[in-house]
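Hey,

Quick one before I head out. I ran the complex with FE2/S2 (inorganic) cluster overnight. Inputs first:
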Amino acid sequence: MGNRGTPKGRDRAPRGGGTPGGAFPRARPVSSGGAGRRSRCRSGSAQPVVAAKEPFAVELQAGRTYAWCSCGHSKRQPFCDGAHKTAAPGLAPLRFTPEEDARVWLCGCKRTRTPPYCDGTHKGEAVQGAPLPPRL
Ligand code: FES
């Protein structure tokens, strides 16, 4: 198990919560189809793949809309590049708009129960033992 990209010091990945302090920043969802808080489509049968076995530390800007990759196929992790359209047509990115600037941990394993934020699920064997998709 390599430590490449492993956060250090106070920037370590959270045990729970999407920020180094453990809390989730306030964010409002972007409506795209009436799915409530999340815009991810749940009607398809596609399953996400593990894109990374650790979360991504990201600086978010208040008022800017982000599209978190929920399928794991994007080459621009943790954000969507449109790959779901061909690789996982039943899935869609989760769009959200933070209400404040914040440094957060966005999930890379795509198994979090608190998307788009890491909740520590990646530490389990289901993620750590999973294959990673090939990268170019
Ligand atoms: S990367 Fe931590 S829950 Fe997915």
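The first strand starts at residue 27 and ends at 29.

Talk tomorrow,
K.
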